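Researcher: Structure prediction, please.
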Amino acid sequence: MPVVNFDLLIKYLSGNATPEEAIAIELWRSASVSNNDYFNEVSEEWNKNNPKPFEKADIDKMWKAFPAGATGDDKQVFPGRKTGWRWIRVAAMLMIILSAGIYFYFSGKENKPGTVSYTANEAKAPFLLPDSSLILLSRGKADYQANKSGRTVHLNGNASFTVKHLENSRFKVKLSCGLVIEDIGTSFNITEYKDSVIVVVTDGTILASDAYAKIPARKYEKITYLIPAKKLYKGEIARDFDFKDATLREIAEAISEDYEIRVELGDYKLENCRLSISSPQTTLSELLQIIENTINVSHIQTGDSIRFYGKGCN
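Model: Predicted structure follows.
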């Protein structure tokens, strides 16, 4: 049975919910068929016992009126890059749901003291863990445990995590193949295949480890774990880049903001160098090489820092 803040649901049915709360309820309804069925049951009972029947809110109108700053729609990271409205809604959904107190998950089952189990029989089922971390589980099972040493999820299946950072409480995901993913305040996706596991970091930093090695990975990097060989490898995520007549300063600032790394220009003469780049499915390393070849500059990358240097442009 899906769980929802019942007082907020009644507030919505009575027509007294705020726009943010109404949006959150409708997004919760759309998260799964079970959520929608549960809502319909409650609304039918409401209509039987109240003279004023429930009228569905105009969500599209509310989205247009929703503050741009709340969805992150008030700026673009890359010049000319289009941000999908669908993904803006998803990001806003997570923020609104947490602030409104809505839980859009199926109840976990406590099999033994200190362990809560979640099972997904559908392609993607969202769950809110006891520590307020989010997990999107795909046809699998996750067992959550928390104690003085930290929080651990034993995962059987594929899942995406958005982890709630807690001081002095580590968050780890353990797979049966021996791979361990430790969160350092982040979001990441885990996909397990027959002979390998792919972990994609979508925000923050993780530490991937097994019995033999440890490898950190940050935003837009991925970890590949070869199960038979017990080997860990780190790689980059390819993305689409679209810069139109942008200055090198603008590109540097966009990279710095989106990748959460420091990007510097070694000489002020480089600031006004202009270039246009339209490059689909490109890694950051490939993008840096394209910049070098286009305006005759060089770069040095050390850890979380990139520095461009050269003679500048006319």
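Model: The longest helix spans residues 33-49.
Researcher: Thanks, that helps.
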